[in-house]
Design brief:
The complex is a heterodimer of chains A (288) and B (404). Chain A is mostly helical. Chain A has a two-stranded antiparallel ribbon. Classes of the chains: A mainly alpha (288), B alpha/beta (404).
């Protein structure tokens, strides 16, 4: 293997890992706080990408102006979903899973009617490419890596160092005790959904210029996210980050040297074997 | 008073007679045209929904053209032994799930009693083919043509167009007219991808070109950097991404250019607008498109205008749309000529018919040389290349002679 090939595969692994980490971040946050697997996460990601398309391509707005607007829009939509659909069944975890799957399908099907069949592109806000030791990466991917890392660490510090984050963690630990301390469960859940869906929207927003926008893009994304957070340890943000880069590396090197299909087979086998040996995932903890 | 009452009754009788006549004539009119259901099984949801919904739209346009008459089908409905018939399209979603495709076929055949099914994807068709063949239901398959389901044993299964077999035209031409020698083939890992790859291999086997890479990728893949890295290391002169779905192929073109691949690629049924907006037209330089007519035929213009007017530009899925137009007309004509809905007779008539195709003429059924049975329509086939930003037709009116 020549050096530039090795470097290119490492660059690919980092790029893929960052995208997967971004995808999984909102999902793992919702699981860590509310103990739910929010299957409509993929639809939020898809809506974030479409919102970017409408703001940037249709209305011609600046990409940087679109960033806070898209997060705010989809985050608010997530809050409304929490209030209208999830709050009444908050304690029924099975019903929540089915509701999430149904919502994902509904939004995906509605997407074909509302947005049309043709895939939508978003022009790159960061054109050009970066050459590094004989490898190539487009600037838009480099930006995903940078913003993805910033998002992961910001979320981590928000949860660990801010009062709101403390409230969220207290709720995650013991909702009843948290309520007795004056932390409103309803507010915590709304905030959790706002941040979770906002992060899904951020992922959609960042990958919109790299990939292609279709109403079905969320289903694949939510599957990858589940794989990432399952391997990383449900609810663990550092675990999700680590897991995303492990899966990204296997995908990059495996595809380059073994083939794309066998690689995905290997990834699934790896995750299954790992979870059989360590059911809590890489950095997950045993939950009651 | 008596006169008034008589006049009143006479009026009632006259009104009664007029209403009766209107009802009788309306009844006679309604009874004159019988509606026959025609089935559709495609992907109306999931990853392949853009194709599935798009092809269903074209089936509907063709059926409406037959029922209402128009520029292409100049009469209303079709006639069998003096009786007039209209089609009614009934489509079920298989969401790319073979189990659902089988359920849909069972419903169409056993409950809706259809005699013809339009269907999408070889994997789905393979799943329900034992049922449709046993019931002698004509299945028109949009799928890459595998010999294991297009063969003399499957008498009632027909293929849409030769797109997937265009490799038999393209590669011999490529060898003769260019310096391209090293070919990389990349297809999605589903039935259509596998059979298209087989068709490419078959086309290349007729030449001295060398295959330097040949692999499949998961159909829902969106990041092609790793696999393209591997392809580029093999130093191909051309990358064949024949039957990759429109969204993924635009991404492949974009990402291949980002990674530094400057050579040509080969694409079947391109969605040019999509390629332009996603990959950028400058990145499409040297790409080969099969088929792509720089000059659309009158039929193609007619269908595109109708489609865009009815379903909107946003829902136009590109050159692939045209392929779904012809069969409804060919089958209606074959049924008229056969004078029966008996599918065995209809198949025998259809096989020998001279066809009027949206792609031009002469058009006829062939394929015996490859499949052992004539089940694939041949028509003049064109291939274009992007040269200096312009589409140039490099192959015009060719026929897939290897299939004859």
């Amino acid at each position: 293997m020549e050096l530039h090939e090795l470097v290119q595969n490492v660059v690919n692994a980092i790029s893929i890992g960052s995208i997967y980490a971004l995808l999984a971040l909102g999902l793992t946050l919702l699981f860590s706080i509310m103990d739910i697997l929010f299957f409509a996460h993929g639809a939020m990601y898809m809506l974030g990408a479409y919102a970017t398309y409408y703001f940037c391509t249709k209305f011609g707005w600046n990409y940087f102006v679109a960033i806070p607007l898209v997060i705010l829009l989809i985050g608010t939509f997530g809050t409304l979903i929490e209030k209208g659909l999830f709050r009444p069944i908050r304690n029924d975890h099975v019903a929540i899973i089915f509701l999430g799957i149904a919502l994902n399908w509904f939004l995906e099907s509605a997407g074909f009617i509302v947005f049309g069949l043709r895939p939508k592109p978003v022009a790159s806000a960061f054109p050009g490419k970066l050459q590094f030791l004989g490898s190539t990466i487009s600037w838009e991917r480099a930006v995903v890596v940078i913003i993805g890392m910033i998002a992961v660490f910001s979320l981590y510090f928000f949860l660990m160092r801010s009062r709101l984050g403390l409230g969220l963690r207290a709720f995650a630990e013991d909702p009843e005790a948290a309520e007795l301390q004056g932390i409103s469960n309803d507010h915590v859940c709304s905030l959790g959904f706002f941040i979770g869906c906002g992060l899904a929207a951020l992922a959609g927003l960042l990958v919109a210029p790299i990939f292609i926008i279709t109403p079905a893009m969320g289903s694949h994304a939510v599957l990858i996210s589940l794989l990432v957070i399952g391997l990383g340890g449900l609810g663990s943000i550092p675990g999700a980050l680590l897991s995303a880069f492990i899966i990204g590396s296997i995908e990059s090197f495996g595809t380059a040297y073994l083939g794309a299909n066998i690689t995905w087979g290997l990834i699934f086998i790896f995750v299954v074997v790992f979870l059989t040996i360590r059911p809590t995932g890489i950095l997950g903890v045993e939950r009651e | 008073m008596k006169m008034q009452r008589g006049s009143y009754f006479r009026r009632i009788i006259w009104v009664g007679i007029v209403v009766g006549l209107v009802l009788i004539s309306a009844g006679a009119y309604c009874g004159d045209v019988t509606e026959v259901e025609i089935g559709g099984i495609t992907s109306l949801s999931g990853v392949a929904a853009p194709w599935g919904i798009g092809m269903n739209n074209v089936w509907q346009l063709a059926i409406d053209e037959i029922n209402n008459g128009g520029k292409w089908w100049k009469k209303k409905g079709f006639t069998v032994n003096g009786k007039k018939y209209n089609w009614k399209l009934k489509t079920y979603d298989h969401a790319f799930d073979a189990g659902k495709a089988v359920s849909a076929a069972n419903r169409l055949i056993n409950r809706d009693r259809v005699k013809i099914i339009f269907a999408f994807d070889g994997g789905m068709i393979k799943a329900f083919q034992p049922i449709s063949e046993k019931a002698k239901v004509i299945t028109v398959a949009y799928a890459s043509p595998g010999k294991d389901y297009i063969n003399p044993k499957n008498f009632y299964t027909w293929m849409y167009g030769i797109d997937c077999m265009a490799a038999v035209i393209f590669y011999p031409w490529l060898e003769k007219n260019t310096d391209i020698r090293r070919i990389a083939i990349l297809e999605p890992d589903h039935w259509t991808g596998h059979t298209t790859e087989a068709a490419s291999r078959f086309g290349i086997s007729k030449t001295k070109l060398e295959i330097v890479f040949d692999d499949f990728f998961p159909a829902d893949m969106t990041d092609f950097y790793p696999i393209l890295t591997r392809i580029i290391q093999k130093k191909p002169d051309l990358i064949d991404i024949g039957n990759v779905d429109p969204a993924a192929r635009a991404l492949i073109v974009k990402q291949a250019r980002e990674l530094g691949f400057k050579g040509p690629m080969y694409i079947i049924t391109p969605d040019i607008a999509n390629l332009k907006s996603v990959a950028g037209w400058e990145n499409c330089e040297k790409l080969y498109f099969a088929p792509y007519d720089t000059q659309l035929t009158e039929g193609q213009k007619y269908v595109k205008d109708m489609y865009v007017k009815r379903f909107g530009e946003e829902n136009w899925i590109g050159a692939i749309s045209y392929i779904f137009w012809d069969y409804a007309f060919w089958l209606s004509e074959a049924i008229e000529k056969a004078g029966t809905f008996d599918t065995t007779t209809v198949c025998n008539v259809l096989e020998k018919m001279k066809l009027k195709s949206i792609y031009g003429e002469p058009a006829y059924f062939a394929g015996k040389g490859y499949y052992g049975i004539n089940r694939m329509p041949l028509y003049p086939y064109n291939i274009s290349q992007v040269q200096n930003g312009k589409l140039v037709q490099v192959i015009s009116g060719a026929y897939a002679t290897y299939l004859k």
